[in-house]
Amino acid sequence: MTTLINPADGRTIGDVPDTAAEDVAGAVQTAREAFEQWRDATPGERARVLLRLADLVEGDADELTRLEVEETGKPAAVFRDGELPFAIDNLRFFAGAARSLEGTGAGVLSKGYTSVLVRRPIGVVGSISPWNFPFIMAVWKAGPALAAGNAVVIKPAPRTPRTTLRLAELFTAAGAPDGLLQVVTGGADVGQALVTDPGVDMVSVTGSTETGRAVMRGAVDGLKRVHLELGGKAPALVFEDAALEDMAAGVVMGATYNTGQDCTAATRVYIDRSRYGEAVEALRDALSRVRPGDPWDEGADIGPLISAAHRDRVHGFVSRASGRIVWGGTPIDGPGFYYSPTLIADADQSSEIVQSEIFGPVLVAVPFDGEDEAVRLANDTPYGLASSVWSADVSRALRVSHRLDVGVTWVNDHLPIASEAPHGGVKGSGFGKDMSQEAVQEYSVTRHLMIKHAAPQARDSFRPA
Ligand code: NAD
User: What per-residue string of b and e applies to 143-165 under the rule 16 or more CB within 10 Å gives b?
Assistant: First the structure.
């Protein structure tokens, strides 16, 4: 049993039973039976169910908002007017993508034979999601896998299971075969039971880099496909010709959105030394305008951190930090697990505050001398998910972005995403893409059918055509 706590006031919301590890196998078996039907559904049939699901989610906005806000403490307006419509757009995109899977081309690739390339689903996908964007992550995990014709057994994070459970109910109501999207609840043990279950053909996880390693290890014996969306420590590079006010507004939004509990959050801001003092001041001013508040207060920009333990962890990083605290740096008195938006200047590149994922509203500033050093510092962490470049010179912005080892670079902004664009990282941020046509393709395999259409002739099978 997991007791759910509202991070905005520390009160108990209710209990959710944990799935017993041995019951995970039953969920996988049910999903496999549903897969037998779904696998043979046409792309159009799959798309219609996903489109109906999107409509049902839209109609359920109030309930989904209540559940998500109670569990995460994020501002209701941010979820209702931003994340939820975005998740609905994702579902509609996946519905369309189901109908345009590449790899169905046919041709005469070898004389006398017609080749047909067929995309097939993989089978049962075991998905594991984090607590920072519970509903969107459930959609990103389940949506492309279902669009490609798979069944999904998903395990949400233990503190935030209810919008995922609701999504599964709505999916059945939308006309999906019973049990096609199963939810198992609990922590790492249930996650490992899912990853190692012999009936699971592929595992997909969004979580910390350490969890990614554990999931990959669990998938080794079964030689399962793995899809890993892991941690991040995004740099923002500010050149001397950047519009500093716009930069400060954008970087601070990038650093504090979802109280910094975002894998793509702007966390390290590297600033050309000639404008370092000015830029730090602009960042401090922008940070001082960010309003933590009750999630139901329409004026609140950010909510609390997810738990008391996580707040202590964030504060631990700040207390041990190199450099000087320019703004914030303290927990905010309860109720709730609030933390002040924080700016630390002159941090040492090799120190923990610069190298480790903090997952809180904490930004560090470091000066650089020249483009080469900016790129070197930006690439100098174990992660490679997101980044931004701030400059009025489009050639420089492009030149620099090509040298960054990351999955995404924004120019003169930080955070926006689109259903059509792949999301995922490199290095310690994992591999595999969420969203976009690429995500749907990753949940499928290509098969080659080679059909003889001409009279037999003597030939060597391996001779180039
Ligand atoms: P976490 O790694 O603690 O947990 C993620 C999920 O994995 C949870 O459901 C958890 O129960 C499960 N889990 C944990 N250990 C496991 C194990 N050994 N085996 C199987 N399952 C296990 O992460 P979190 O604290 O819930 O989320 C924050 C992390 O997620 C951050 O590192 C963040 O950067 C990352 N994240 C990445 C992306 C991305 O797209 N790259 C998006 C959102 C969050």
Answer: bbbbbbbbbbbbbbbbbbbbbbb
Q: Which of 83, 229, 357, 442 is catalytic?
A: 229
Could you read off the pLDDT of 63-84 as tens digits, one per residue? 999 999 999 999 999 999 999 9
Ligand 1 mutation pick, 2, 190, 206, max ligand atoms within 8 A of CB: 206
Q: How far apart are CA 208 and CA 130, in angstroms?
A: 9
All domains in the chain, ordered by first residue: 2-229+435-449 (3.40.605.10), 234-411 (3.40.309.10)
Detail the DSSP E strand segments found in 331-391.
Answer: 342-345, 362-368, 386-390
Q: Give the span between the Cα atoms of 453 and 339, in whole angstroms.
A: 69
Tens digits of per-residue pLDDT, 387-420? 999 999 999 999 999 999 999 999 999 999 999 9
**Token pair recorded at residue 177:** 């075969």
Closest Cα to atom 28 of ligand 1: 207
Looking at the DSSP bridge assignments, the partners of residue 115 are: 107, 450
Distance CA 18, CA 9 (A): 24
Token code pair at residue 345: 């200047």
SS3 227: strand
